[in-house]
Amino acid sequence: MNAQDAKQLADWGFNVIRLGVLWAGVEPVQGEYNYTYLSEIGTIIDTLAAENIYTIIDMHQDVLARNFCGNGIPGWAAELGSSEAKLPFPMPANMPLKKNIDGNPDLEACLSHDFIKYYFSGAVSKTFQALYENHFGLLDSFVDFWKLTISLFKDREYVLGYEIINEPWAGDIYSDPRRIFNAESSLLEPFYSVVHAAMRSVDDEKIVFYEPLTYDVWPVGFDENPVGGEEYAARSAMSYHIYCPLAGGNTTPLVLKLACQGVDWDFFHQRVQDIKRIGGGGMMTEWGSLSNSDLDLAELNHILRLADDYLVSHIYWQYKDYHDITSTGDAGISLYPNGVIQDDKVKVLARTYAEAVAGETLVMKYREDKNHFTLNYVPNALPGAGAAGEGGDDYDDDAAKTVVRVDRSHHYGGRWIDGIKVDVSWNGWGGDVTCSDDGRRVVLKHWGDGGGGDDDGNDKPEVNVHITPCRRFRDSKCTC
């Protein structure tokens, strides 16, 4: 990840990335921290920040460690955690894996199986259980990893927050199979409570992200926000992933691709209802993992339309492959397989959206077939706002700004397109429209009281925004 990558992501409209900061990288030897690794992480965060891109620091893991054909936690922690297992990895699964001279499974042998199968190894289950319950002091060491990491990055403005652990498993499912269904309440809630308290001892302000179980295909088992309850609702978010198990690859039958539309809707609806029940925020921090085929591009568009409908923030998996050994699918799921950009996929992802709304969002929709964007919102009632937006001491200029991200190269340029046309119905509000110098943003600023509603801002009229390509010889004037 360099400055060119960051600029390119920003040009496409991306404003947040999820960056894996692995415990294995920070503490490769027990009790010894790798500050060179952490310094490189800081460089990546700063490079992205220069393009106004936020970073979620993610303790990413898949099947925990290289010991288990995965990644995430240090080898020494995996050895300790799995020492209580009755059978060696990958048993009870019958997948013979030869070992390298370092004692880890041969990488080529690892890649010959779907990594998800390794979760069912007794060694992996035991290690998760050991982490959750602090066997061998693993939870203590995990907490120390997080406290050190947060202490180094908490003051960086463009660090959005910290994700405790990616796709947690249900612990030792062999000693108690009920954990397959109740581990969120019986294991993850107390685990998250301990880690969250330690995080907040270092940083009480940034967002802490938490995940349901790896296989989050039904309503989550948390009864309340597991990272601080109601007190921290405004500084916590459920991190969830939506992948249709029927999608992926050029050979998937069309009927299964179509079936994914129903599966996707169910997943969205389920998670949104979970978040309303539990409290706090939410973000779809993984989705996609699809190829550049026409069917997969249609699936990407379908998920993005659902995200707009439910007003869900999201992060695509993945930007580049970076020798990833635990993704479902080949390198074609990234934006740069074999070092060549998949521009059709980028065009789908680089859609127009509202980055910030100065009020309550009612509707946000983008028609990818015509590059038409619609945003309806009820503006904030701002104290001190004058007739032309010139407020007194109480007027907050930034709180009056709604920002829409646009990718001119993919959607608002071409042979017969000269730019962007913005039509706004202010409906009693005062307002104006400007375009950022870099061409990435349309900024709408409102003022006044909307000419209706009560003093608390209730029942105010909505503002309607329409953004379309500005067509040469048809539109008399382009906005941007």
UniProtKB/TrEMBL annotation:
Keywords: Glycosidase, Hydrolase. InterPro entries: GH, GH5_C, Glyco_hydro_5, Glyco_hydro_b, Glycosphingolipid_Hydrolases. Pfam families: Cellulase (PF00150), Glyco_hydro_5_C (PF18564). Residues 351-449 form the Glycoside hydrolase family 5 C-terminal domain. One of its GO terms (biological process) is carbohydrate derivative catabolic process. Residues 4-321 form the Glycoside hydrolase family domain. The keyword Hydrolase applies. Transmembrane segments: none annotated. The keyword DNA damage does not apply. One of its GO terms (molecular function) is hydrolase activity, hydrolyzing O-glycosyl compounds. Belongs to the glycosyl hydrolase 5 (cellulase A) family. This is Endoglycoceramidase. It comes from Triparma retinervis.
